[in-house]
Amino acid sequence: MDKSVFYFGVDYYPEQWPENRWSEDARLMKEAGFNIVRLAEFAWSRLEPKEGLFDFDWLDHVLEVLHEQGIVAVLGTPTASPPPWLMSQHPELFRVRDDGLQVSFGNRREYCPNHPLYHQYSRRIVSVMAEHFNSYPSVIGWQIDNEFGERCYCPVCVARFQEWLQNRYGTLEKLNTCWGTVFWSHVYTDWTEVPVPLTTGGAPNPGLGLDFRRFVSDSYLAYQQMQVDILRKTCPKHFVTHNFMGFGYEGLNYYDLARTLDIVSWDNYPLGFWQKDLTVVDPSVLALSHDAMRGLKQQNFWIMEQQAGPSGWETVSPNPHPGELRLWAYQSIAHGADGVVFFRWRTARFGTEQYWHGLLDHNGQLSRRYNEIKGMGAELCKIGDSILGTSVKAQVAIIQSYDSRFAFQVQPNHHHFHYSDHITHLYQTLFRKNITVDVVAPETDLSGYKMVIAPALHILTESIASGLANYVREGGTLVVTPRTGVKDDSNAVVNQSLPGLLAEVCGVTVAECDSLIAGTSQSIRFNVPGLNNLDPLEARIWVDILAPAGAEVLAHYTDDYYAGRPAVTLNKHGKGQAIYVGTFGGTALYQALFGWLVERLTITSVSTALEGVEVAERWQGNRRLMFFLNHTTVAQTISLPAGYVNILEKKTLGRQVTMAPYDVIILSVHE
């Protein structure tokens, strides 16, 4: 990968189109400013049409045609969609669902990620491809499989899960103790007695439910690593990635999956067809996914699939308005993307994704969408050098714990509590203030952040608690929320007053709690200067009634039997402080609290702007790029310091600038 090049391209499926069209496609790609394509991730049946018979001639030709236009390629290992001949010969490879039924052929990722025979066939196709394309000058990288995800409950996975548990716990005595299997007489006397959590078995032991999710994540990690090892050995000059699915996907531990990859890439569909009632795109939700994907390795990332038009399988999403595709792509760049690849080049005429539109429509003619992205390609040809080498800097971090995320899948605690939604609500408050946020793992070095938010850190180990305590002692500000420190590493409730291992740091314990009736709420009132003039603020879903043990009370409840009892506290610990928020608040509560904290901690906003105009920045030394992104359907007038230049147009701007709907301005500023 050439680090002096900003990669801008498209996902291409030449095997779905006549060969005499390929040259025209490549020419149009070059005219659009594209310098990279992704190829072949769903082409196993073309690459190996019969067992052991490989045909790479067509892909060789495609690469030659693209290379003539100066376009390089990322190749996908095609293991996400096994060929019919393989699955018909070996039906035992089909994945088993959580209801115990085996899937059948007809979609993709039907395979069991643990089956040794599937590993064998995968190893062969990846090895042969790697050896064949190792020396191709136009191949610069590989994408492993495609959007890992589904859990398998087949007999192979049952046996592997039992082996995984043996490696984790060592003895059945320890497993029985950690899981508390004495409950309901579930004490295991042989490893083969341990089941997988099928839905037919009802609610599983929480320890079993959490560990099975960890096991599935480790299974995909091992399957990915098998392919990574082949590519690293055979193609050492090529980068290796996998296309993740953003913050919204919660089936795998993405921190683990990203660890041995060279770069993270992810698939960004603002108008995804799976959202039945989508009426408007929330830019904060997109921004959160960008920041979460950047946080997986704490480095810049790629978009491997950027929405190129209406999406859909059985149904069709809304059509992006003029300017939205460009806006979403620039938002990706603003949050750290060093490569943007659109999905897809041309809308398929057949198959499940006939309604998943590309830059060209079914007829292959140029579209409004193509011309919009062609204009962006021309812009990037001029400003790409300005973007390269810059990165995102944040003063605030939000901790995302996949162990906690998995644990809440097993036991949500409340019908209306969703861990990912809780993080989203907290993030949105900071997003609206144009404050840059990193989304990081619990084990991350936090010393560089002025404020760290640990939302509902349900699973809390001694090492993570120690790291958070040290962060506060050294001067950091930690914010925690309800259901923090409730469980140990085996998903058993701790034998301590909550918040467990963080009680001393927070200077408070939870005297009791109240899971609020659906549709009802309570209220709290702040009693600190600057916030004590506010009307009572909404407390939703959950209430922790706090008992300070040295902490200062910032707010109290106003209703019910806990009226007057502490709701929010602040505890000084070492050089820093810890804030315990005892409820899942509404927007107004978070706006008030974080507004107060941001001012108190002198956390700087990137810029102030109108509602709907996002401002983000990338830095290189004392130079920064400021991105102004108008996410609204109306023109917006923003205020700027005089003399700034919009590098997209090489135009000096005045103090008052009017941005068209979905418009983008990028300023290059030297501090």
Notes on the structure:
The radius of gyration is 26 Å and the shape is globular. The chain has three domains: 7-149 and 206-387, TIM Barrel (Alpha-Beta Barrel), CATH 3.20.20; 396-600, Class I glutamine amidotransferase (GATase) domain (Rossmann fold); 613-670, Immunoglobulin-like. The mean pLDDT is 96. With 671 residues, it is an alpha/beta fold. The strands form five sheets. Strands 10, 11, 12, 13, 14, 15, 16, 17, 18, 19 and 20 form an eleven-stranded mixed sheet that branches.
As a whole number of angstroms, the C-alpha radius of gyration is 26 Å
Stretches with pLDDT under 50, minimum 5 residues: none
Instruction: Supply the number of structural domains.
Output: 3
- Output the CATH topology of the largest domain: TIM Barrel
CATH class of the largest domain: Alpha Beta
Termini gap: 31 Å
Question: Mind describing the biggest β-sheet?
Answer: 11 strands, mixed
Computed structural class: alpha/beta
CATH architecture of the largest domain: Alpha-Beta Barrel
Beta fraction:
15-25%
The total beta strand count reads 27
Into which percent range does the helicity of residues fall?
25-40%
General form: globular
CATH superfamily of the largest domain: Glycosidases
User: Helical stretch count?
Assistant: 17
Overall average residue pLDDT: 96
